[in-house]
Amino acid sequence: MLIWVILFSILGSVGAIAAASIFVVLGEKIQKKLIPALLSFATGTLLTAAFLGLIPESIEAVTEPHLITTIILGGILFFFFLEKFLIWRNCQNNACEVHAHAPGPLVLIGDAFHNFTDGIVIAAAFLTDFNIGLAASFTIIMHEIPQETGDFAILIHSGMSNKKAFLYNILSSSTTIPSAIISYFILDVFETVVPIFLAFSAASFIYIALSDLTPQLHERTETKEIVKQLFLIVLGIVLMTLLLFLGGHNH
Question: pLDDT tens-digit profile of 67-84?
């Protein structure tokens, strides 16, 4: 069973990135055309993952829902001050435009927490039942692909090179692997903190989508562009909703 846990934790992290990394292989000209579209798509996938996946699951796992909403509120404040710090560290004059580079680290931190909880979920599912483990793992892989593709677009848009975006994404996603292995042996300890990780991940997704991505989408005011953005946001929402619920596992 441990071998299955390790295998699917690798597929759920590195495997999803490998599938999403097709975006990196594309030429710079195609990337520049795709990035605005993927930012809209990422807005939909991040918000759906937070509101329909992470938050409901974290609330179900605790006896006091206010604990989760408090963690989400605290998480949003944490990411606000973290972004402020990143801006302040890189730029201490009003003319600086470095704020455009801040979302990258936020995506990586949120993704690391999110993937850490994925590892716990994979281990818990396989320890419950082999078929449940398979269902949970495939659902995680399938919802990670569109999310990681959106993350690539955000990182590259934040000023990272293709190589850097790929390597950092691998690092933030690889937290699934040690998390799954450790959880296999000490699941009882981790089960109590899973809701906290889920809520914190949700806070990062909400903050990135509404604070960093949405203002960039508002920069384009042409009717055609607005319709395209709305379509891609809704597409991201629909796709993530299908992946979350058709898999029979609300994570």
Answer: 999 999 999 998 888 877
Distances, alpha carbon 210 to alpha carbons 11, 95, 194, 207, in Å: 30, 24, 24, 5
N residues, the chain = 251
Would residue 182 count as lying in a domain? yes
**Mean pLDDT across the chain, nearest whole number?**
81
Distance CA 246, CA 228 (A): 26
pLDDT tens-place string over residues 137-157 = 876 776 677 677 778 888 887
Residue 251 lies in a domain: no
User: What tokens were used for 53?
Assistant: 């996946």
For the record, the structure tokens of 20 come out as 């999403």
d(CA 116, CA 179): 6
Is pLDDT at 99 greater than 50 in this prediction? no
Query: Do the domain assignments include residue 47?
Result: yes
| Angle (nearest 5°) at CA 146 between 22 and 128 | 120
Contact yes or no for 74/203 (Cβ under 8 A): yes
State which residues form the domain around 99. 2-246
33 lies in a domain?
Answer: yes
**pLDDT by residue (tens digit) across 7-58?**
988 888 877 788 777 777 777 778 778 878 888 988 898 898 889 888 888 8
Domain count, the chain: 1
Span between the terminal Cα atoms of the chain, in Å: 21
Instruction: List Cβ neighbours of 194 (8 Å cut-off, separation of 6 or more).
Output: 58, 61, 117, 120, 121
